[in-house]
């Protein structure tokens, strides 16, 4: 079988920013070595016309021996596939920008993946580990916008994100009860995300450095040309 890949977007995220809105981790010993919910990279690419979503975490501890090789983290991709959609990022405790929204989501734990819809639809999805990457297969041929989040997995929560309580606990995150449950997101300005509760879709940030360098180079060439003319 021939696989045709088209890598369209590869983004990186700083290491060590997996504390959400200043949340404290649960006090159980398995959560003391942080990094298992720390997003370091995200990629979206096409395989034979359909989109794959990939994520890389800083660490993959697996105390529960889950089949995908990690058992403490939960990952949620919320996909904007058209106009309208649900603006609340269910489970993560964030929202999309006004006028945004998502139509389907992929929840991933060490036990597999599930496709969800805002109205409660759910079906199994294909997910797998490839080295340090976790991948999930979508059934989309058109490129979606993606909201990328991670947190601590809780199999008893409807959307898989572990609860936040004032004072925390052995199994609960420590923070305000209405704080977002996500511990890491993919965004250029995470401080703004946590203060506003609004997460933009993942996208490559436009850099003005190459343009500035080119401008300086052209100015230098112009001055050199002018100095030669005046001799």
Structure overview:
- With 231 residues, the chain is mainly beta.
- It has a single domain, classed as Immunoglobulin-like (Sandwich).
- It has 2 helices and 15 strands.
- The strands form 4 sheets. The chain has a 6-stranded antiparallel β-sheet with strand order 9-8-7-4-12-15, with no helix packed on it. Strands 1-2-3-11-10 form a 5-stranded antiparallel β-sheet, with no helix packed on it.
- The protein is globular.
- The model is unreliable at 1-7 and 206-215 (pLDDT under 50).
How is this structure best summarized?
With 231 residues, the protein is mostly beta strands. It is built from 2 helices and 15 strands.
Task: List the defining traits of the structure above.
231 residues, mainly beta, Immunoglobulin-like, six-stranded antiparallel β-sheet, 2 helices, globular, disordered N terminus
Give a topology summary.
Elements: E1 5-12, E2 39-47, E3 50-57, E4 73-80, E5 88-89, E6 94-95, E7 104-109, E8 112-116, E9 122-125, E10 127-130, E11 133-137, E12 145-152, E13 164-165, E14 173-174, E15 184-185, H1 190-196, H2 209-229
Parallel strand pairs: 13-14
Antiparallel strand pairs: 1-2, 2-3, 3-11, 4-7, 4-12, 5-6, 7-8, 8-9, 10-11, 12-15
């Amino acid at each position: 079988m021939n696989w045709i890949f088209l890598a369209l977007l590869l983004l990186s995220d700083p290491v060590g920013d997996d504390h959400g809105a200043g949340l404290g981790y649960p006090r159980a010993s398995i959560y003391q070595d942080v990094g298992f919910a720390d997003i370091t990279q995200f990629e979206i690419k096409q395989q034979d016309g359909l989109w794959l979503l990939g994520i890389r975490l800083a660490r993959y501890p697996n105390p529960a021996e889950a089949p995908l090789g990690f058992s403490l983290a939960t990952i949620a991709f919320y996909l904007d596939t058209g106009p309208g959609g649900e603006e609340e990022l269910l489970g993560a405790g964030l929202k999309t920008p006004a006028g945004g929204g998502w139509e389907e989501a992929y929840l991933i734990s060490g036990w597999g993946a599930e496709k969800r819809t805002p109205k409660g639809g759910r079906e199994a999805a294909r997910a797998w580990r490839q080295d340090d990457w976790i991948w999930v297969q979508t059934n989309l041929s058109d490129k979606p916008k993606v909201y990328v989040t991670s947190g601590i997995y809780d199999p008893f929560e409807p959307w898989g994100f572990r609860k936040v309580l004032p004072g925390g606990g052995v199994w609960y995150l420590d923070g305000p009860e209405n704080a977002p449950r996500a511990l890491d997101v993919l965004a250029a300005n995470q401080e703004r995300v946590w203060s506003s509760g609004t997460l933009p879709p993942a996208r490559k940030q436009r850099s003005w450095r190459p343009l500035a360098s080119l401008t300086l180079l052209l100015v230098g060439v112009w001055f050199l040309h002018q100095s030669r003319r005046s001799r």
